[in-house]
Amino acid sequence: MDIVFPIIRVITVIIAWVGAIGGVWAVVDALSRRSDAFTAADKQTKGTWVGITAACAAVMGLGLIPYGLFEPPQLLWLAASVGTLVYLLDVRPRLREVQNGNRW
Fold it and tell me: Domain of 28?
C-alpha cells in the first residue's frame, strides 16, 4: 500500500501540469482570435472567453502548488478544466472554421 500513494501523487502532478499548460494555451489562443469571429461563430464575446480562460488558467496554475487548495481532484480545479475544455473543444474549432472557411 505504501507504493500506491507516490504513484497517485506523480499522476496528480502530471495532470496539474497538463491542465496548467492547456489553460495558458487557451488564453493565448483566445487572445489571438479576431473579436468579430466570436460573434460570427455565434459564441460569447472575445472578452468573455478571454476572461473565462484566464480565470481557468489561474485556478489550474494554482493547482501546481503541492497539497494546495486547487489540486486536480478538487472541485474548483475540475470546474476550471471544464471551462478550458469547452473553449478548446467547442469554441476554438468553430472559430477556426469561421476564420479559415470550411475546408470541405
Answer: 4-96
pLDDT in tens, 26-56: 999 999 999 999 999 999 999 999 999 999 9
Which of 60-64's residues contact partners 24+ apart within 8 Å by CB, and which partners? 60/16, 60/19, 60/20, 60/22, 60/23, 60/84, 61/20, 61/23, 61/24, 63/16, 63/19, 63/20, 64/13, 64/16, 64/17, 64/20
Structure confidence at residue 9 (pLDDT):
87
Q: What span, in angstroms and rounded, lies between the C-alpha atoms of 78 and 87?
A: 14
Q: How many domains does the chain have?
A: 1
Domain assignment present for residue 102? The answer is no
Question: Tens of pLDDT along 58-86?
Answer: 999 998 888 777 888 889 999 999 999 99
The span from the CA of 99 to the CA of 104, in Å, is: 14
